[in-house]
Amino acid sequence: MIELTAEVVVAGAGPTGLMLANELALAGVDVVVLERLSARSGLSKALNLQPRTAEVLDLRGLLGRAEQRSFATVGEGHFAAIPVSYAGWDTRHPYQVGIPQGEVEATLEERLVEQGVTVLRGHELTGFVQDATGVTVTADGARVRADYLVGCDGGRSAVRRGLGLSFDGVEGRGYGVVADVVFRVAPAGVPEQWRSMRNIVASHGAGVFHTLIPLGPPGLYRLGYGDRLRRPADMRAKVTDDEIRQVVRERYGEEVEIEEIRWASRFADDSRLAQRYRMGRVLLAGDAAHIHFAAGGQGLNLGLQDAMNLGWKLAAVLRGRAPAGQLDTYESERRPVAARVMDNVATQSALIPTTAEQRAVRALVTELATLPEVQHHLSGLVSGLDVRYPAPPDAHPATGTRLPDFELEHGYASDLFHSGGFVLLTTEPAPAPHPEVTVAVVPRLPWPGVTRALIRPDGYVASTTGSTEGWIAA
Ligand SMILES: Cc1cc2nc3c(=O)[nH]c(=O)nc-3n(C[C@H](O)[C@H](O)[C@H](O)COP(=O)(O)OP(=O)(O)OC[C@H]3O[C@@H](n4cnc5c(N)ncnc54)[C@H](O)[C@@H]3O)c2cc1C
């Protein structure tokens, strides 16, 4: 049994936990990461980074590393398999990065190790007790005393259950299967490289859908299929090679030949949101706080942005730069974002037609989605670019929105955030409003009439006056 102390224990080294641990380590917080598995599985549910996630990784100098491990750049997103362009957004990254989840995790863990933090593997959190001064976390073979615990331990979160929080939502009726398949003879007409969402997803008949995404190497594809109305009798039953071969034969024809099925998994379409994201010294992030059907490619992206929102706030509270109450803004900002994603996922599910009326609705939405304003709205929903955090009623409309990146004489505005602090962007020289704030004089700001903006470590506008009030303790 190892006995440790830390400022923060992160339970779970999936994408959310690794991102959060990186943010905490960057801020100089003593963090311990406990992971149940003894080695990274290498398996990848998610395959994409949305534009806002690309921006967020860029704020920390991590995007280039992730892109080196990517297998595709996809020039658009999709909403219920209807392609939607990101072109209307002021972003340097109007595309999805095609990258397996395992490679996102590898990128984040590589940076974490460079920051001196090693994931403690083979230590499943089994319980915790919080009191007025901290949390005692018990895991297989380890006990850690810490100031805070964050449950990044996935949809079946032991931390969420330990808090006794409800995980309410909608129990889905359907299911999906994903499998990585190598074809000796691939289906005719499917793209060999993933460049767009066209010809990637198709729905066939009442509620049934199929997807085929090329993963880079010749013949290797991510096969997906499912039914949003019916589930197999045993959802936990292993997906057999015979099942996959049969689906491929029926959908893509007898002439298609499978060389290898690398892995396969069945998943449900339940949608659930944790009742609270914080109880005292224990918080939830990522799938531990929200789960939904994998429509539009959003879950991993949501988790990484939870981590980006929470990391600097926890560090500020631990260093006495903010009252503990600032942690409540993590819930008040991020829980509505997850609820909104769950709504858009429900809408996407409803657009997989099961009746003639729904087919007509889908046809109409497909037509509407060719209009630039509709594209903008739908791509904003799935990309995370439209996230706007609550702001005082008299604040400038930019307050609470993301800073669109822009070029400076040397580099980009995003480079100013690599160290994870607040930045005052100003068009005229100005004194730092607080020792914690870096001042950068820039030729212009992205909002007409705004000459000064205090930007939070996660890239959102704190104020357009430069005031640190409410953000950093005096
Ligand atoms: C089929 C499918 C396809 C998907 N495709 C996409 C996509 O294209 N794009 C997208 O954005 N999202 C997608 N998602 C969603 C995405 O995979 C998840 O949202 C993402 O994995 C959440 O990351 P996380 O770190 O919060 O949780 P997880 O990835 O579940 O990680 C949790 C970690 O905690 C560990 N753990 C669990 N319990 C304990 C414990 N008690 N103690 C210690 N460690 C523990 C686990 O071993 C794991 O390593 C998909 C999901 C599915 C099912």
Automatic annotation (TrEMBL):
Q: Indicate whether Flavoprotein appears among the record's keywords.
A: yes
Q: Which cofactor does it need?
A: FAD
Signal peptide residues on this chain, from the entry's feature table = none
Could you tell me which residue ranges the FAD-binding domain spans? 6-344
The identity of this protein, by name, is FAD-dependent oxidoreductase
User: Pfam families, alphabetically?
Assistant: FAD_binding_3, Rng_hyd_C
| A Gene Ontology molecular function term of the record | oxidoreductase activity, acting on paired donors, with incorporation or reduction of molecular oxygen, NAD(P)H as one donor, and incorporation of one atom of oxygen
Presence of keyword Protein biosynthesis: no
> InterPro entries from the entry?
FAD-bd (IPR002938), FAD/NAD-bd_sf (IPR036188), RIFMO-like (IPR050641)
Which key words are in the record?
A: FAD, Flavoprotein
Q: State the organism named in the record.
A: Nonomuraea terrae
